[in-house]
Amino acid sequence: MRFENKRALKIFEKNGCQVDYSNNRVRFPEGLVEECLRKCPISFRARARNPKNDMIWGGNTTYFQALAGTRSVDLNTWEPKTPTRKEYYDAVTVLNALENVHSIPWYTPWYGFKNVPPAMAMPEGLAARLRNSSKFTFASHSMGCEVFNIQMAQAVGTELRIPMSASPPLAYYNDAIEAGFRTIEAGFIFYISTGDIYGGTSPVTITGSLISINAEAIAGIVLAQLIKPGTRVIVSDFSFPQDMKSGSPAFGAIGISLHQVAFNQIRRKYGIPTDSGNYPNSKKIDYQAAYEKTTLALIAALSGTNTIWIQGAMYGELVFHPVQAILDDDIAGMIGRFIKGIEVNDETLAIDLINEVGPIPGHYLNKAHTRKWWKKEQFVPKVADRLTYPEWMKIGKKSCIDYAKERMDEILATHKVDPPLTESQEKEIERILKEAREYYKKKGLITDTEWKAYIQDLESSNYPYA
């Protein structure tokens, strides 16, 4: 492996690795690798801002989390568009209200919004998630922004999951490694993501790609456990086949599922929690998006992944919309009900009830057993069309997208984050954001034009937090 970080290289050398400083290459002794794998916790708790939203990663637990997009989309024309601050905050509110969204990752719902300079996109995005959700959230790294992200999380009493992302094939660059050090030093969850493209940055064969990705992931695990033994680790299979016709990643491809199934079994053997990305190739809220998302997410769940990315995104990571997230939440609920399985006991077997009701004209509609168990046994989607044909025609032939739009309006009109940030927490977040703004302005990473638009946004009614 190649590690572009002298501090990491020295740690590897101190622990018996062969280090070539001339090209930053590291070779790992087998025994050291096995020892570090054993030090990873097989299950652990992640603390959210509201304790009821804490997550326990590992074992047979499966969670669902939202997906991200670089931009929003116009639902009438399907043209991408840049979201506003209000749209960003509203989208986080929707994700906070959806019962099957268990966590909200970095960049989510979007990589930024209007009038926010790129250097401030991640800190502003995290602040929006902390303000409008009490679910567990993540943060990422770019230009050292994890420093400010960690401070904001500590100010409101939550933990973060922060990545040390590999740069395939077989490399880690300095900014990712420094983010890894800071994550571990803060005591937060260390997340390893690879992002290989089969046939591009890893072998085109699934087995060959697994070997390459496994090497990248294990190298990150070794570094984490050498820095601080017992560090909580999650490893992601965020990889895709390359579409050899276009050269772009083949989102929604069944090859992703084949890869994830094998990857998840390897991780379960190691006892390390896993994470699976499921992006569709469709650019619309349509049949293709539904079958691509459902197929990949269901197979991921059946193969034992601990977290499935599903709600909100359309094509790759390029587009997100809360209406899509609401529809995806029903998919997640259906999959969750399936993997929960069948409860078998004397009451569910209902032998006495069957004998009591007997044959026709007996029925079960008026029985207490039916009233008690039907909602437990059945999954009832929130926005699917389940009317009879005559009823559907009578109310205007509404589609699931119509119902999802109505649910979004209802959420935005009624949902409140529990608990809201305290006044002191809000002031501390604003102090940290101000420090970040001044830091990036001084570093020359915010242009004068960007700064002017940014300040106007902060002084407008769009920003009631100053």
What does it look like?
The chain is an alpha/beta fold. The chain has two domains: 2-340, Alpha-Beta Barrel (TIM Barrel), CATH 3.20.20; 423-458. It has 17 helices and 18 strands. It has helices at residues 6-14, 30-39, 85-97, 121-132, 146-156, 174-186, 206-227, 254-270, 287-302, 322-340, 346-349, 351-357, 368-377, 389-394, 400-414, 423-442, 448-458; strands at 2-3, 18-20, 25-27, 43-46, 55-58, 63-66, 72-73, 80-81, 103-104, 136-138, 160-165, 171-172, 189-193, 197-198, 233-237, 240-241, 274-276, 307-311. It has a six-stranded parallel beta sheet. Strands 1-12 form a two-stranded parallel sheet. A two-stranded antiparallel ribbon has the order 2-3. Strand 4 and strand 5 (55-58) form a beta hairpin. The protein starts with a strand and ends in an 8-residue tail after the last helix. The mean pLDDT is 95.
Q: CATH superfamily assignment of the largest domain?
A: Trimethylamine methyltransferase-like
Task: Give a count of the beta strands, DSSP E runs of length 2 or more.
Answer: 18
- Say what the CATH topology of the largest domain is: TIM Barrel
Cα end-to-end separation = 46 Å
Number of structurally distinct domains = 2
Structural class: alpha/beta
Biggest sheet strand order reads 9-10-11-13-15-17
Overall mean pLDDT score?
Answer: 95
Topology:
Blueprint: E1 2-3, H1 6-14, E2 18-20, E3 25-27, H2 30-39, E4 43-46, E5 55-58, E6 63-66, E7 72-73, E8 80-81, H3 85-97, E9 103-104, H4 121-132, E10 136-138, H5 146-156, E11 160-165, E12 171-172, H6 174-186, E13 189-193, E14 197-198, H7 206-227, E15 233-237, E16 240-241, H8 254-270, E17 274-276, H9 287-302, E18 307-311, H10 322-340, H11 346-349, H12 351-357, H13 368-377, H14 389-394, H15 400-414, H16 423-442, H17 448-458
Helix pairs in contact: 2-7, 3-4, 4-5, 4-16, 5-16, 7-8, 8-9, 9-10, 10-15
